[in-house]
Design a protein that fits this description.
- The chain is an alpha/beta fold and 489 residues long.
- 38% of the residues lie in helices and 15% in strands.
- The protein has 19 helices and 17 strands.
- The strands form two sheets. A ten-stranded mixed beta sheet has the order 8-17-16-15-14-13-12-9-10-11, with helices on both faces. Strands 3-2-1-4-5-6-7 form a seven-stranded parallel beta sheet, covered by helices on one side.
- α2 crosses α3, α3 packs parallel to α4 and α17 packs across α18.
- It is elongated, with a radius of gyration of 26 Å.
Length: 489
C-alpha cells in the first residue's frame, strides 16, 4: 500500500471519478481490472491454500469483472473454481465484458449456488457502489452463505454494504478478508461495515497518486501522522508552568470519581499542573483521594470568575459527574473564552437550548471540544442523529460546523470533526474500552493536551488515538484506573 494514501478515505463516488480520470489520462483501464483480480486471487490462495473449491460470485458491473479475472487466475493456478453470476453476462459492458470474454470457465445463475463444506466464496457481486437494498436473489445467497459459515473474501467491499455510510442495505456478507484498491472507503472503518469486512488489504493497482490525490478530501483515518507535528515536546527548558494548567470540575461528594479520573488522565498525558475544582462539600472526599492533583473550592459562578482572573488556567474539562442543570450551563458559558472539553452531564445540560452553547463559542478560533456518545449527540443534534441519509462522518461534520466546535462523536468508530472540514475516523480502539469511566479518561486526556498548547482538533485526534492505544496496552478486563496507567505519550 502506498504510504502517501494509507490514511485517505474516498467515497465510492470519489473513487469512481478517480477511475474515470485514470482512463482519460490514457491508462489501460482493463489493465487496472486485471491487476485487481490478480490481487484478489493471490489473497485467496494465500489465506486458503487448502480450499476444496473457490466459488466466485460475479455481479453485473465492474466488480463482477474483477470477479471474472479472479476466477481465471485461480483456475490458472490449479485451483478448483466455480462461477455463479447475477444477470446475463452477455449484457456486460466495457472492461467487465472483456474480463468475461477472457474467462473461459462455465458459470451458473447466482441463485443456483448451494454451499459445500470446504468452499471459499469470492464475493464480487456489487462492491462499494451499492446504494439501494440488495435484490432478493442476492439476499437469499447471502443468507445461505452466512448460515453455512462459509469463508468469504470480498472484492472492494462485502456486497450489501453502503460504501459511503457503512450501513447494511437489506443484507450483507460477513467477510473474513476484504481486498480493496488504492484507498479504503468509509464503510471499511464505519460500523457496522468495519465488522463485516474482516481484515482489509489495500492493493495499489497503479493509478497515479496525483489522480487519487485530486479526489482525496479532508476525510482520513486517525493516525499519529495527522497530529504528530502539533504534539507537545519536552525540552530541557520545560517546567510545569510551561506545560499548561488543566482544571477539571468535580461533582458533589457522592459523584466525584469521574472528575478524578479525568484529572488523573490529564496529568498522565503531560499537563504541567492539574486542579480539581470541587464544591466545598466535596473537598474532604476528594482530598482523601488526591496526591499530585491540586484541589480548589469553587461553589458558584462568582468563585469561578475569581479563578478565571488567572490566565494561566488555560484549559478546562467540565461534565464528568458534574450534574445536569442551570449551574452546569452557567459554569460552561463562563468558560467561553478558554479551551474547554464538554463531556457527559455538561452536554446533556444544553439539550433544551443548544444554541446558547453554540453562540457562546461561535467567534474566533474553535476552542470547544464536545465529546458525545450516540445518545448525547442526539440530545444536542436531534435532527442530525435521525437523518438516515447521512453517514456518521457527515453527521459529525455538520455538527462541528453548527456548534463551531470540534466534535468527538464517540463509539467503536469514533469520528473527530472540525468546523473547517477536517474529519478523522479512529480505528484502533479495542472493544474492551467500553467500560465505566473510559469516556472520563478520554476527556481528561484531550484537556491535558489542550493545556499543553495543542490546537483543538489535533488535541482531540491525539487524545482519541492514544486512548485506544492505552486500551490495547491495558488488555482485556481493564478498569479505567488501569487505563490511565497505560497511557503513553
Amino acid at each position: 500500500m502506498n504510504k502517501d494514501c494509507e490514511n485517505w478515505l474516498l467515497t465510492p463516488a470519489a473513487m469512481g471519478r478517480v477511475d474515470d480520470a485514470a482512463a482519460r489520462s490514457g491508462m489501460n483501464s482493463y489493465g487496472l481490472m486485471e491487476k485487481a483480480g490478480q490481487a484478489v486471487s493471490a489473497a485467496a490462495l494465500r489465506l486458503f491454500p487448502g480450499a476444496r473449491r473457490f466459488v466466485v460470485l460475479s455481479g453485473p458491473g465492474n466488480n463482477g469483472g474483477d470477479g471474472y479475472v479472479t476466477a481465471r487466475a485461480l483456475s490458472e493456478a490449479g485451483a478448483a473454481v466455480s462461477i455463479f453470476r447475477l444477470g446475463d453476462p452477455s449484457r456486460l459492458k466495457g472492461d467487465a465484458a472483456t474480463a468475461f470474454a477472457h474467462c473461459l470457465l462455465d458459470g451458473d445463475d447466482l441463485d443456483a449456488y448451494q454451499p459445500w463444506a470446504g468452499d471459499v466464496v469470492v464475493d464480487a457481486i456489487f462492491g462499494a457502489g451499492l446504494d439501494r437494498p440488495v435484490p432478493d436473489t442476492v439476499r437469499h445467497v447471502i443468507e445461505r452463505v452466512n448460515v453455512a459459515s462459509i469463508p468469504v473474501i470480498a472484492v472492494d467491499l462485502p456486497s450489501g454494504l453502503d460504501g459511503r455510510t457503512g450501513r447494511v442495505l437489506g443484507a450483507a456478507f460477513t467477510a473474513v478478508h476484504t481486498v480493496t484498491f488504492m484507498t479504503r472507503k468509509p464503510a471499511h472503518v464505519l460500523l457496522p461495515g468495519r465488522r463485516l469486512c474482516g481484515s482489509v488489504e489495500v492493493y495499489d493497482i497503479g493509478v497515479p497518486m496525483r489522480i487519487v490525490a485530486g479526489e482525496a478530501g479532508c476525510v482520513r483515518v486517525n493516525s499519529p501522522s495527522e497530529w504528530q507535528y502539533e504534539f507537545p515536546s519536552e525540552g530541557l527548558e520545560s517546567h510545569k508552568f510551561s506545560r499548561g494548567h488543566l482544571t477539571v470540575f468535580s461533582g458533589p461528594a457522592a459523584a466525584t470519581g469521574a472528575a478524578r479520573l479525568s484529572a488523573a488522565a490529564g496529568l498522565r498525558i503531560g499537563a504541567g499542573l492539574v486542579t480539581l475544582a470541587s464544591p466545598t462539600a466535596a473537598l474532604e472526599t476528594n482530598a482523601a483521594q488526591l496526591t499530585a492533583v491540586m484541589l480548589k473550592a469553587i461553589d458558584n459562578p462568582s468563585d469561578l470568575a475569581v479563578y478565571l482572573d488567572d490566565p494561566r488556567h488555560n484549559a478546562f474539562v467540565i461534565g464528568p459527574g458534574f450534574g445536569i442543570g442551570e449551574r452546569t450551563r452557567a459554569f460552561a458559558l463562563a468558560l467561553k473564552d478558554r479551551l474547554v472539553v464538554l463531556d457527559a452531564d455538561a452536554i446533556t445540560s444544553f439539550r433544551d437550548e443548544p444554541n446558547a452553547l453554540f453562540n457562546a463559542f461561535s467567534g474566533g478560533d474553535f476552542r470547544l471540544v464536545l465529546t458525545p456518545h450516540e445518545g448525547e449527540f442526539a440530545r444536542l443534534f436531534p435532527d442530525l442523529a435521525t437523518d438516515e441519509r447521512q453517514s456518521k462522518i457527515e453527521r459529525a461534520l455538520a455538527a462541528a460546523v453548527r456548534a463551531h466546535a470540534v466534535i468527538v462523536y464517540k463509539g467503536a468508530d469514533t469520528v473527530i470533526a472540525a468546523p473547517d472540514g477536517r474529519v478523522l475516523v479512529n480505528d484502533n480502539a479495542p472493544a474492551w474500552l467500553a467500560t465505566a469511566g473510559s469516556g472520563d479518561v478520554l476527556a481528561g486526556m484531550i484537556g491535558g493536551l489542550l493545556a499543553q498548547g495543542m490546537p483543538a482538533f489535533e488535541a482531540a485526534a491525539a487524545g482519541v488515538f492514544l486512548h485506544g492505544k492505552a486500551g490495547t496496552a491495558a488488555g482485556r478486563g481493564l478498569t479505567s484506573e488501569h487505563l490511565i496507567t497505560s497511557i503513553e505519550r
